[in-house]
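Standup notes
- HV: blocked on the assembly model, inputs below
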Amino acid sequence: MVAEKLLILNLKRGREEAYRQLIEEYGNRLLRTCYLILKDREEAEDVVQETFIKVFKKIDTFKEKSGLYTWIYAIALNLSRDRMRMKQDMLELKDEWIGNDDVESQVEINIDKELLRKEIFEMNSLYREVLVLFYFEALSIKEISNLLNEKEGTIKSRLSRGRNLLKESLLKGGRKNE
Amino acid sequence: MNKKDNLSKEIKNIMEEETFDLTLSQNAFDNIIKHRKKSINEKIREFLNREIEIPVAPAIVGLAALFAVTLIPKDVFKSYDVKVINMGNSHVIIREGYEVSKK
Protein backbone atom coordinates (compact mmCIF):
# COMPACT_ATOMS: atom_id res chain seq x y z
CA MET A 1 0.00 0.00 0.00
CA VAL A 2 2.85 2.33 0.91
CA ALA A 3 4.67 1.26 -2.24
CA GLU A 4 1.58 2.05 -4.30
CA LYS A 5 1.23 5.47 -2.71
CA LEU A 6 4.87 6.18 -3.48
CA LEU A 7 4.36 5.02 -7.04
CA ILE A 8 1.36 7.32 -7.47
CA LEU A 9 3.32 10.24 -6.00
CA ASN A 10 6.22 9.64 -8.38
CA LEU A 11 3.82 9.33 -11.30
CA LYS A 12 2.30 12.67 -10.38
CA ARG A 13 5.80 14.16 -10.23
CA GLY A 14 6.49 12.81 -13.70
CA ARG A 15 9.38 10.50 -12.76
CA GLU A 16 10.28 8.26 -15.68
CA GLU A 17 11.22 5.26 -13.51
CA ALA A 18 7.73 5.34 -11.97
CA TYR A 19 6.16 5.14 -15.42
CA ARG A 20 8.40 2.25 -16.35
CA GLN A 21 7.56 0.48 -13.11
CA LEU A 22 3.84 0.91 -13.72
CA ILE A 23 4.03 -0.58 -17.22
CA GLU A 24 6.29 -3.43 -16.11
CA GLU A 25 4.01 -4.23 -13.20
CA TYR A 26 0.63 -4.05 -14.91
CA GLY A 27 1.27 -4.02 -18.68
CA ASN A 28 1.33 -7.75 -19.37
CA ARG A 29 -1.52 -8.52 -17.01
CA LEU A 30 -3.67 -5.87 -18.64
CA LEU A 31 -2.71 -7.09 -22.11
CA ARG A 32 -3.77 -10.64 -21.27
CA THR A 33 -7.13 -9.58 -19.91
CA CYS A 34 -7.79 -7.29 -22.88
CA TYR A 35 -6.81 -10.06 -25.25
CA LEU A 36 -9.27 -12.47 -23.65
CA ILE A 37 -12.03 -9.91 -23.95
CA LEU A 38 -11.21 -8.62 -27.44
CA LYS A 39 -9.95 -11.87 -29.01
CA ASP A 40 -7.34 -9.88 -30.93
CA ARG A 41 -3.73 -9.40 -29.88
CA GLU A 42 -3.08 -6.19 -31.81
CA GLU A 43 -6.26 -4.60 -30.63
CA ALA A 44 -5.50 -5.62 -27.09
CA GLU A 45 -2.07 -4.00 -27.35
CA ASP A 46 -3.63 -0.83 -28.75
CA VAL A 47 -6.06 -0.73 -25.85
CA VAL A 48 -3.22 -1.18 -23.35
CA GLN A 49 -1.29 1.67 -24.96
CA GLU A 50 -4.32 3.93 -24.97
CA THR A 51 -5.02 3.00 -21.36
CA PHE A 52 -1.56 3.94 -20.11
CA ILE A 53 -1.52 7.15 -22.13
CA LYS A 54 -4.87 8.06 -20.58
CA VAL A 55 -3.58 7.13 -17.14
CA PHE A 56 -0.55 9.40 -17.61
CA LYS A 57 -2.76 12.28 -18.69
CA LYS A 58 -5.25 11.84 -15.87
CA ILE A 59 -2.95 10.80 -13.04
CA ASP A 60 -3.28 14.22 -11.39
CA THR A 61 -7.04 13.73 -11.14
CA PHE A 62 -6.74 10.27 -9.52
CA LYS A 63 -8.27 10.68 -6.06
CA GLU A 64 -7.08 7.29 -4.72
CA LYS A 65 -10.60 6.23 -3.70
CA SER A 66 -9.89 2.90 -5.38
CA GLY A 67 -6.66 1.00 -5.93
CA LEU A 68 -4.42 2.12 -8.75
CA TYR A 69 -4.86 -1.12 -10.65
CA THR A 70 -8.66 -0.99 -10.30
CA TRP A 71 -8.61 2.52 -11.73
CA ILE A 72 -6.37 1.49 -14.63
CA TYR A 73 -8.54 -1.56 -15.15
CA ALA A 74 -11.72 0.49 -15.36
CA ILE A 75 -10.15 2.67 -18.05
CA ALA A 76 -8.98 -0.39 -20.01
CA LEU A 77 -12.40 -2.04 -19.79
CA ASN A 78 -14.14 1.10 -21.02
CA LEU A 79 -11.77 1.31 -23.96
CA SER A 80 -12.29 -2.39 -24.71
CA ARG A 81 -16.05 -1.92 -24.61
CA ASP A 82 -15.80 1.02 -27.01
CA ARG A 83 -13.89 -1.21 -29.42
CA MET A 84 -16.40 -4.00 -29.09
CA ARG A 85 -19.25 -1.60 -29.72
CA MET A 86 -17.49 -0.43 -32.86
CA LYS A 87 -17.26 -4.03 -33.99
CA GLN A 88 -20.84 -4.58 -32.81
CA ASP A 89 -19.55 -7.57 -30.94
CA MET A 90 -21.29 -6.51 -27.79
CA LEU A 91 -25.00 -7.06 -28.10
CA GLU A 92 -27.37 -5.39 -25.72
CA LEU A 93 -28.64 -8.00 -23.35
CA LYS A 94 -31.64 -8.06 -21.12
CA ASP A 95 -30.25 -9.33 -17.89
CA GLU A 96 -32.42 -11.72 -16.01
CA TRP A 97 -31.56 -13.30 -12.74
CA ILE A 98 -31.51 -17.04 -13.06
CA GLY A 99 -32.12 -18.59 -9.66
CA ASN A 100 -29.76 -21.52 -9.82
CA ASP A 101 -26.25 -20.28 -10.44
CA ASP A 102 -24.58 -23.63 -10.05
CA VAL A 103 -25.28 -25.24 -13.40
CA GLU A 104 -22.52 -27.76 -12.84
CA SER A 105 -24.58 -29.40 -10.13
CA GLN A 106 -27.38 -30.17 -12.58
CA VAL A 107 -25.50 -32.36 -15.01
CA GLU A 108 -21.99 -33.72 -14.69
CA ILE A 109 -20.14 -33.80 -17.97
CA ASN A 110 -16.72 -34.60 -19.29
CA ILE A 111 -15.45 -31.34 -20.54
CA ASP A 112 -14.21 -31.22 -24.11
CA LYS A 113 -11.46 -28.66 -23.64
CA GLU A 114 -11.11 -27.68 -27.27
CA LEU A 115 -14.82 -27.18 -27.63
CA LEU A 116 -14.87 -25.13 -24.45
CA ARG A 117 -11.96 -23.00 -25.74
CA LYS A 118 -13.83 -22.37 -28.97
CA GLU A 119 -17.05 -21.52 -27.17
CA ILE A 120 -15.35 -19.09 -24.79
CA PHE A 121 -13.97 -17.10 -27.70
CA GLU A 122 -17.15 -17.25 -29.71
CA MET A 123 -19.60 -16.24 -27.02
CA ASN A 124 -20.96 -12.71 -26.69
CA SER A 125 -18.24 -10.51 -25.27
CA LEU A 126 -20.56 -9.17 -22.59
CA TYR A 127 -20.57 -12.63 -21.02
CA ARG A 128 -16.92 -13.30 -21.80
CA GLU A 129 -15.93 -10.05 -20.11
CA VAL A 130 -17.53 -11.12 -16.83
CA LEU A 131 -16.10 -14.65 -17.10
CA VAL A 132 -12.61 -13.24 -17.67
CA LEU A 133 -12.86 -10.94 -14.69
CA PHE A 134 -14.29 -13.64 -12.45
CA TYR A 135 -12.11 -16.60 -13.41
CA PHE A 136 -8.96 -15.17 -14.93
CA GLU A 137 -8.61 -12.06 -12.77
CA ALA A 138 -10.17 -13.81 -9.77
CA LEU A 139 -12.24 -10.76 -8.88
CA SER A 140 -15.29 -11.02 -6.67
CA ILE A 141 -18.82 -10.25 -7.90
CA LYS A 142 -18.69 -7.02 -5.90
CA GLU A 143 -15.38 -5.96 -7.40
CA ILE A 144 -16.65 -6.68 -10.92
CA SER A 145 -19.82 -4.77 -10.22
CA ASN A 146 -17.80 -1.74 -9.06
CA LEU A 147 -15.47 -2.00 -12.00
CA LEU A 148 -18.20 -2.23 -14.62
CA ASN A 149 -20.54 0.07 -12.77
CA GLU A 150 -23.34 -2.51 -12.82
CA LYS A 151 -25.49 -4.03 -10.09
CA GLU A 152 -24.20 -7.17 -8.40
CA GLY A 153 -27.34 -9.01 -9.55
CA THR A 154 -26.59 -8.11 -13.15
CA ILE A 155 -23.07 -9.47 -12.85
CA LYS A 156 -24.32 -12.68 -11.21
CA SER A 157 -26.87 -13.06 -13.94
CA ARG A 158 -24.32 -12.57 -16.72
CA LEU A 159 -21.95 -14.98 -15.08
CA SER A 160 -24.63 -17.58 -14.68
CA ARG A 161 -25.88 -17.16 -18.24
CA GLY A 162 -22.36 -17.26 -19.60
CA ARG A 163 -21.72 -20.50 -17.76
CA ASN A 164 -25.04 -21.90 -18.94
CA LEU A 165 -24.21 -21.09 -22.54
CA LEU A 166 -20.90 -22.87 -22.24
CA LYS A 167 -22.53 -25.76 -20.50
CA GLU A 168 -25.20 -26.12 -23.17
CA SER A 169 -22.59 -26.08 -25.91
CA LEU A 170 -20.59 -28.73 -24.10
CA LEU A 171 -23.68 -30.85 -23.65
CA LYS A 172 -24.50 -30.63 -27.33
CA GLY A 173 -20.98 -31.29 -28.50
CA GLY A 174 -19.49 -33.07 -25.53
CA ARG A 175 -20.07 -36.50 -24.02
CA LYS A 176 -22.34 -37.10 -21.09
CA ASN A 177 -20.86 -38.67 -18.01
CA GLU A 178 -21.78 -42.26 -17.51
CA MET B 1 -20.66 -18.41 -7.39
CA ASN B 2 -18.46 -21.46 -7.37
CA LYS B 3 -14.89 -21.16 -8.60
CA LYS B 4 -13.81 -24.67 -7.73
CA ASP B 5 -16.02 -26.85 -9.91
CA ASN B 6 -14.72 -28.56 -13.05
CA LEU B 7 -16.12 -26.04 -15.48
CA SER B 8 -14.63 -23.13 -13.54
CA LYS B 9 -11.25 -24.80 -13.38
CA GLU B 10 -11.29 -25.53 -17.08
CA ILE B 11 -12.34 -21.97 -17.98
CA LYS B 12 -9.49 -20.61 -15.88
CA ASN B 13 -6.99 -23.10 -17.36
CA ILE B 14 -7.99 -22.27 -20.92
CA MET B 15 -7.69 -18.53 -20.26
CA GLU B 16 -4.26 -19.00 -18.72
CA GLU B 17 -3.07 -21.25 -21.53
CA GLU B 18 -4.25 -18.78 -24.13
CA THR B 19 -2.36 -15.89 -22.58
CA PHE B 20 0.71 -17.25 -20.79
CA ASP B 21 3.17 -16.22 -23.51
CA LEU B 22 1.51 -12.90 -24.23
CA THR B 23 3.72 -9.92 -23.39
CA LEU B 24 3.70 -6.27 -24.29
CA SER B 25 6.03 -5.60 -27.24
CA GLN B 26 9.01 -3.30 -26.85
CA ASN B 27 7.50 -1.05 -29.48
CA ALA B 28 4.32 -0.62 -27.45
CA PHE B 29 6.36 -0.09 -24.29
CA ASP B 30 8.42 2.67 -25.92
CA ASN B 31 5.35 4.27 -27.40
CA ILE B 32 3.70 4.43 -23.99
CA ILE B 33 6.81 5.92 -22.36
CA LYS B 34 6.98 8.53 -25.12
CA HIS B 35 3.58 9.84 -24.02
CA ARG B 36 4.35 10.10 -20.34
CA LYS B 37 3.98 13.30 -18.39
CA LYS B 38 7.32 15.09 -18.13
CA SER B 39 8.76 16.66 -15.00
CA ILE B 40 9.55 20.39 -14.93
CA ASN B 41 13.30 19.68 -14.98
CA GLU B 42 12.94 17.59 -18.11
CA LYS B 43 10.80 20.24 -19.77
CA ILE B 44 13.47 22.89 -19.05
CA ARG B 45 16.27 20.58 -20.22
CA GLU B 46 14.36 19.78 -23.38
CA PHE B 47 13.77 23.46 -24.06
CA LEU B 48 17.44 24.29 -23.58
CA ASN B 49 18.64 21.38 -25.71
CA ARG B 50 16.28 21.95 -28.53
CA GLU B 51 17.76 22.48 -31.98
CA ILE B 52 16.66 25.50 -33.88
CA GLU B 53 17.22 26.33 -37.50
CA ILE B 54 17.92 29.93 -38.46
CA PRO B 55 17.94 30.80 -42.17
CA VAL B 56 21.24 32.59 -42.89
CA ALA B 57 20.05 35.38 -45.19
CA PRO B 58 17.28 36.77 -42.95
CA ALA B 59 19.58 36.38 -39.94
CA ILE B 60 22.31 38.50 -41.57
CA VAL B 61 19.79 41.12 -42.64
CA GLY B 62 18.37 41.19 -39.13
CA LEU B 63 21.79 41.54 -37.51
CA ALA B 64 22.77 44.29 -39.92
CA ALA B 65 19.57 46.15 -39.11
CA LEU B 66 20.22 45.77 -35.40
CA PHE B 67 23.79 47.00 -35.87
CA ALA B 68 22.58 50.01 -37.83
CA VAL B 69 19.99 50.94 -35.23
CA THR B 70 22.27 50.59 -32.21
CA LEU B 71 25.74 51.65 -33.35
CA ILE B 72 25.36 54.25 -36.08
CA PRO B 73 24.73 57.77 -34.70
CA LYS B 74 21.20 58.82 -35.40
CA ASP B 75 22.09 62.06 -37.18
CA VAL B 76 24.85 60.66 -39.35
CA PHE B 77 22.79 60.90 -42.47
CA LYS B 78 21.38 64.31 -41.76
CA SER B 79 22.78 67.08 -43.90
CA TYR B 80 22.47 70.50 -42.43
CA ASP B 81 22.60 73.59 -44.50
CA VAL B 82 24.97 75.60 -42.32
CA LYS B 83 26.09 79.14 -42.92
CA VAL B 84 28.98 80.61 -40.99
CA ILE B 85 29.34 84.37 -40.77
CA ASN B 86 32.69 85.53 -39.50
CA MET B 87 32.53 88.66 -37.40
CA GLY B 88 36.03 89.54 -36.34
CA ASN B 89 37.24 87.00 -33.86
CA SER B 90 33.90 85.29 -33.49
CA HIS B 91 31.55 83.64 -35.94
CA VAL B 92 27.82 83.08 -36.11
CA ILE B 93 26.51 79.68 -37.23
CA ILE B 94 23.13 79.63 -38.92
CA ARG B 95 21.32 76.32 -39.43
CA GLU B 96 18.15 75.94 -41.42
CA GLY B 97 16.70 73.13 -39.40
CA TYR B 98 16.15 73.00 -35.69
CA GLU B 99 15.28 70.36 -33.16
CA VAL B 100 13.23 70.49 -30.04
CA SER B 101 15.05 68.66 -27.31
CA LYS B 102 13.10 66.05 -25.35
CA LYS B 103 13.05 66.62 -21.61
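- HV (later): unblocked. The CA atoms of residues 44 and 50 of chain B lie 10 Å apart. Residues 56-71 of chain B form the longest helix (16 residues).
- Next: hand off to the docking folks.
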